[in-house]
Amino acid sequence: MSTHAQPLLSPAEYLAMERASRDIKHEFFRGEIFAMAGGSRKHNLLALNLSGMLYNTLRDGPCETYSNDMRVLVHPSGLYTYPDLVVTCEQPRFEDEFGDTLLNPQLIIEVLSDSTESYDRGKKFEHYRRIESLVEYMLVAQDRPQIDLFSRSSDGSWQLTDASGLESAIRLASLEAVLPLAEIYARIEFPAEE
The whole model's pTM is what? Predict the structure, then answer.
């Protein structure tokens, strides 16, 4: 009995498949596709809370906020992925005329889960750091009120700022915005501490 490896896809084949798919989204890297898992109730509430806050904060300015349906291409590495939220304050640049693959995000937000946290903090962040336009990367915990914000310094290094507890807030310098964690975590219940 022989085993056949799955044939590698070209970026054009991946995009055609992804655009035809209505139900499942996939990341794409080096010819391989990876199905993305659905989000939990907490995940969805956090993403929607943040989306609403960013919309209200940015609606009168040049910035645009996109939900997890906006694909991002990390052009230097070739990773296609769907961050939970993306903000661009420049004229949006897209890979092609479909306008569904953003090339120039300034802020990317990922809501962490047990299954994605190490990837989001590790390999995925390695990819994201290669996006020239990206200046902030925010990681949002689901199990406690905790946000880690990585900001690119003028020398290209990344600095970590964190905010913990419902009484704290996180400052997004790229957007000139301060987001209270109490609002980000509205309607989120946490397990009782023992």
Answer: 0.91
